[in-house]
Amino acid sequence: MQEATEAAGALTGVHRDAWFQQREAEEYFIQLMAVSDETALRDFILARQPFPADPGYFRAYSQGREWYVLVLGPYPNRRQAQTALQALPSTLRRYQPWPRSLASIQAAMNAYAEHTQR
Questions:
Q1: What is the pLDDT of residue 11?
Q2: Cα separation, 66 vs 41, whole angstroms
């Protein structure tokens, strides 16, 4: 796990878990994807930078699995996130992104924290 943490540090300008916990819960993001392999996600980010908005990823636990979730943002509300989503290049829209509230991101992060404390 230390190797993944060190490699993640090489991603400049990519927000991580603590940053999401400090944001206002009313904000929205565009979720691009969720994958179970952090290395694959980091490779995806490196291959596609720069993004049209700030990228970030966080760890989540859902459906009995651990995930690394890539999002872009923040946006002040759902409408602006939806507008930004429509403006994404087709190379990113092909992943079927969707607007996601920060409140739901924080809930997913909390589920991950609870899962890892067991």
A1: 81
A2: 13
